[in-house]
Amino acid sequence: MRIGTVGTSWITESFIEAIKEVDGAELCAVHSRAEVKAENFARKHGAAYYYTDLQEMAESDHLDCIYLASPNSLHFKQALLFLEQGKHVICEKPMFASLKEFEEAHRVAEANGVRLFEALRNLYTPNFQKVKKELDDVGQLRNVLLHRMKYSSRYDELLAGKEPAIFSAKFAGGALVDLGVYPIAVAVALFGKPLAVQYTPVMLSSGVDGSGTLVLTFPGFVCTILCSKISTSHLQSEIQGEAGTISIDDIGAFSNIQYKPRSKGKSTWNGAPQRENVMAYELEAFLGYMQEGDSPAYEEMKAISREVLAITETARKQSGIYFEGED
Fold first, then answer.
1. Between 296-318 and 181-191, two packed helices, what is the crossing angle to 10 degrees?
2. Interatomic CA distance for residues 324 and 233, integer angstroms
3. CB 8 within 8 A of CB 41
4. How many CA within 13 A on the CB side of residue 11?
5. pLDDT digits (tens, 9 = 90+) for 245-261
6. Quick check: 213 and 226 in contact, CB under 8 A?
């Protein structure tokens, strides 16, 4: 699979490193708006081609798949450009700003015989799969606390009077859509669609949320999700049931997990060592989806992405958080 990348940030470099670890994947091209930056980025990572024009990149005949890691608000337009040219698209989270964009992009993907993926890397890790498999060990679910809270260096720019994309309504930024999607995706993948959604944000001067608390109500239990780009947490996430508790050290990577039973004499269990770069797991899964015909796994992940977006869109609008151009 010949892959091109759009974006030159650390997340793009991590994805490129994952490409090198996965059989059947090859980095062919990179994109940056600045020619010198594009050329240097291609040279650094061994890409044969570099582009400053997205249309030219989309029309190229030496690419099968594009990885998008551009600002959030650009995902939809850029994804359509590549999908219409018959390229598979792997889009960094959050995939899009609205369900309307989600449905249209998937319609275009299907019409052109290609696939569209959201890079929810945590759902593809072996340790997440173990939690999913062993979830019944906790017994009746009673309380779930999941979080992704990490101080962003870009917040210092906001405090200095600038408006970086990740803290801008113009670029569909904010804590919920940028970091909250990790724990929300876990909740949806494990528990399904919630009965109710309620979000309480901490708003910033730029018109987006710097942090917030999201409460998802399920039959018999509540899932509380904390997200922040203006503070850092060192606590573990927990899935608590009447029979025991599963703890998760990092909801974005599932590096370490542990089950502790409530009763003495019952067996505990831990997760297994994983690759340092967990993006390799998602890329392996995506390659499989691209090569399959009918794929229940692809449809399942598409449904998860759709529900995650439905939750964030509902939560934002409940709280009065609107991105530029939204009604």
1. 120
2. 30
3. yes
4. 15
5. 999 999 999 999 999 99
6. yes
Is residue 201 reached through a cis peptide bond, with omega within 30 degrees of 0 on the bond before it? no
Q: 38 CB contacts (<8 Å, ≥6 apart)?
A: 8, 30, 31, 32, 50, 51, 52
Q: Specify whether the CB–CB gap between 69 and 11 falls below 8 A.
A: yes
Report the amino acid identity of residue 17: E
Write down the pLDDT at residue 327. 64
97 vs 118: CA distance, rounded Å: 13
Per-residue pLDDT for 48 more than 90?
yes
Q: What is the rounded average pLDDT for all residues in the chain?
A: 96
Structure token pair of residue 243: 């029979």
Rounded CA-CA distance 211/257 in Å is 25
Gyration radius from the chain CA atoms: 20
On whether the CB atoms of residues 50 and 29 are closer than 8 A, the answer is yes
Instruction: Say if CB 23 and CB 86 are below 8 A apart.
Output: no
Q: Is 67 helix (H, G, I), strand (E, B) or coil?
A: strand
295-309 pLDDT tens trace: 899 999 999 999 999
106 vs 303: CA distance, rounded Å: 11
Neighbours of 234 (CB within 10 A): 6
Give the C-alpha separation, 34 to 45, whole Å.
17
Residue reference for tokens 């005949």: 61
Amino acid at 202: V
Report the sign of the C-alpha dihedral through residues 92, 278, 255, 164, in that order. Answer: negative
Q: What is the largest CA-CA distance in the chain?
A: 64
Please tell me the predicted confidence (pLDDT) of residue 295: 86
